[in-house]
Amino acid sequence: MLISFEGIDGSGKSTQARLLHDYLSEAGQNPLMVREPGGTDLSEKIRSLLLNEDVQVEPMAELLLFSAARAQLCREKIRPALNEGRIVICDRFYDSSTAYQGAGRDVAVEDVDIDWLNSLHQRATGGLVPDRTYLVEVDAGTALARRNRSDAGPDRMEGASDGFYERVAAAYDRLARQEPDRFLRLDGTASISAIQARVQSDVNRLLAAARTEG
Ligand code: ADP
Ligand code: TYD
Predict the structure, then answer these.
(1) Structural domain tally of the chain?
(2) CB of residue 193 inside a 6 A radius of ligand 1
(3) How far apart are CA 176 and CA 181, in angstroms?
(4) Is-above-0.90 flag for pTM?
């Protein structure tokens, strides 16, 4: 089973992904948790290039680099783990590229269309689609306040211009409407434990359904 967490930077999705990983580990499930971009030697190197404030990256190059990091991660880690029957938890997956590069950076509007973007995702992932995607939703102001509380300064992505996170959030909203069976929206302003309780009950339901089907 493949589970992804999505949301704007500071929404709290990494916190939820980690807690779900801990919960499933304690339940003896041996889940694999990965973050994007990252999770393999190559993908972590691409990550440091992409987040480095001193490197200039054009929008199309940015899209292809995120996709390259994903292609490596899917083949090296995610697909093998799924083949072993493990649950894989992704802190971000291709919906991040649709929202951040497609809408945030306007690559889709300027250079490519959405069908091409979806086809790129399909090729990069080798056809992997999450069984469930948790969209942690907070307004851009709340997310910024949470990011400002962290020790690290803004990375290259977080230094984006005004309106960027509003466009990304609007794109996530569209994705969740387009695929209501895959997406589950979570109110990211609720407490960490309340959000996690919602995630755990949903995952338990999905696992029970998978057992019945299997
Ligand atoms: P993301 O992965 O979406 O960037 P994080 O999970 O790293 O976000 O959380 C960003 C910050 O917000 C962290 O300091 C975290 O402790 C805090 N945080 C996460 N979830 C909540 C929440 N539901 N309420 C208040 N603060 C939260
Ligand atoms: P990260 O520090 O992991 O942010 P977060 O904790 O919010 O997940 O940095 C990942 C950054 O890369 C984040 O700003 C989102 C961005 N990103 C994209 O723009 N496109 C993508 O396809 C992915 C996976 C991430």
Answers:
(1) 1
(2) no
(3) 9
(4) yes
